[in-house]
Write a structure and sequence with these properties.
The protein is an alpha/beta fold and about 425 residues long. It folds into two domains: about 65-230 and about 275-305 and about 385-390, Rossmann fold, CATH 3.40.50; about 240-270 and about 305-380 and about 395-410, no CATH class. It has 14 helices and 15 strands. The strands form five sheets. It has a seven-stranded parallel β-sheet, sandwiched between helices. It has a two-stranded antiparallel sheet with strand order 1-2. Strand 6, helix 3 and strand 7 form a beta-alpha-beta unit. The longest helix is centred in the middle third of the chain and has 17 residues, at about 140-155. It is globular.
Length: about 425
């Protein structure tokens, strides 16, 4: 006898809606969840899955989102432009020299000239701004004045725009202090956590944050701050490009038969550290700009793995074609690249000619000072990603592979041998 069995399957997302954190912030929105599993969030205009926090009824779609990327020619800015364009956003890319490609519209403006910004942005109606620009000055007082004003003026020039969210990139100097007092005095314990109080030292990152918070209060948008470690990514003429700097060092070492010497401190050579892939940083910024869990929060952003330079340095050397017997690690003292390369960097033009490279000006490629600052720290630098993961951003990069992919792209663009 044939028997039929009828089963009723009930699938629920979860039995209860988790409470959202009640944190006092300068720009904190009130989160309202309905009873039950629907997770309706009237403050954000839609329903959210109560397990993941991801919007299930988002009125803002890539077709209606208009992004303005500020500092679009830099490492982070160019990665953001690529990410947003792939995701179908309408993208405007602001830099000192406008460059339009495909669907991306270039805008030229001087961030230090409010009149220039007002003129350039008069017809712009972005819903989301991604601010990735900064300009290094001689003193931290000047850094604060210039870089704080750039954030303030950019957002003032967009007072007419229907802004929903502004994402700002800063970095680990939030915990380590400014260049002129870098990693000096009492430092917070590692790994660095977002809730660490500000250092009692003037810092242009703090000034940028304060300008962002003030504009958000006036103009009614949400914000996010993204604290990256050293960024691995593609750019030319960028002041903070460790990947390209190391590749140029290796090419000069190969051309001139020099040792490939680690330039940093004993602590960096032996201690644990981490880095940030530009693509991962871009992904986190887009996530925070479009997911309610990212609103009005500061997040660390690193790849998710850790390494020691004593392990990484010979591996990068191999990827860059340096023979093992010419690879030199830490040997009793720091050997800054500015010191190592002083008498050799002018010979980059020979390397460029020998390999048919596209750029013969080494100053457009290598930022010795910045790599020296990063690798010369006399402390372990490791960053916690727990807050970001708890909020729902779970993506990851393998740091060695990020370097390999970067070197491959620079070779394809004929910038390194």
């Amino acid at each position: 006898m044939q028997m039929q069995m009828h089963m009723t399957v009930s699938v629920t997302c979860c039995s209860a809606v988790p409470a959202l954190p009640d944190i006092d912030r300068q720009r904190r929105r009130h989160h309202t969840l309905s009873d039950g599993a629907s997770g309706a969030n009237t403050e954000y205009g839609g329903a959210r899955c109560p397990c993941t926090g991801v919007s299930t009824d988002d009125n803002s779609t890539p077709d209606t989102r208009r992004a303005l990327v500020v500092g679009a020619s830099g490492i982070t800015g160019s990665a953001l432009v690529d990410q947003l364009d792939r995701d179908g956003w309408e993208v405007s890319a602001l830099s000192r020299r406008a460059s339009s490609t495909g669907r991306v519209r270039g805008i030229a403006a001087d961030l230090r000239d409010l009149g220039s910004l007002r003129a350039a942005l008069a017809e712009e109606r972005p819903t989301h701004v991604f601010f990735t620009a900064w300009q290094r000055q001689e003193t931290e007082a000047e850094n604060i004045a210039v870089n704080g004003a750039m954030v303030r003026d950019l957002l003032a020039a967009l007072a007419h725009a229907p802004l929903q969210h502004v994402a700002l990139v800063t970095g680990l100097k939030h915990y380590l202090g400014p260049f002129e007092a870098y990693a000096a005095g009492e430092m917070p314990d590692t790994p660095f956590h977002e809730e660490e109080p500000r250092l009692d030292t003037p810092n242009f990152y703090y000034a940028q944050e304060d300008e962002l918070f003030a504009a958000a209060a006036r103009q009614g948008f949400t914000w996010s701050v993204h604290r990256s470690h050293t960024v691995i990514g593609y750019a030319v003429g960028n002041a903070m490009n460790m990947g390209l700097t190391i590749a140029v060092q290796a090419a000069l070492a190969n051309h001139l038969d020099l040792p490939f010497v680690f330039p940093g401190s004993e602590e960096q050579w032996n201690g644990l550290t981490d880095m940030t892939d530009a693509g991962l940083l871009a992904e986190q910024m887009v996530w925070a700009a479009t997911d309610p869990a990212g609103a009005d929060e500061a997040f660390n952003i690193v790849n998710g793995d850790v390494f020691r330079w004593r392990w990484m340095w010979p591996r990068l050397a191999a990827h860059l074609g340096v023979e093992p017997d010419r690879v030199v690690g830490y040997e009793g003292r720091t050997r800054p690249l500015e010191e190592q390369m002083a008498e050799h960097q002018h010979r980059w033009s020979e390397v460029a000619a020998a390999h048919g490279l596209a750029e013969s000006d080494v100053t457009r490629l290598a930022s010795w000072w910045h790599t020296d600052a990063d690798l010369g720290r006399e402390m372990e630098v490791v960053t916690d990603m727990g807050k970001s993961r708890d909020a729902g951003f779970l993506r990851y990069r393998r740091t060695e592979q990020a370097f390999v992919d970067l070197f491959r792209r620079y070779r394809a663009e004929r910038l390194i041998p």
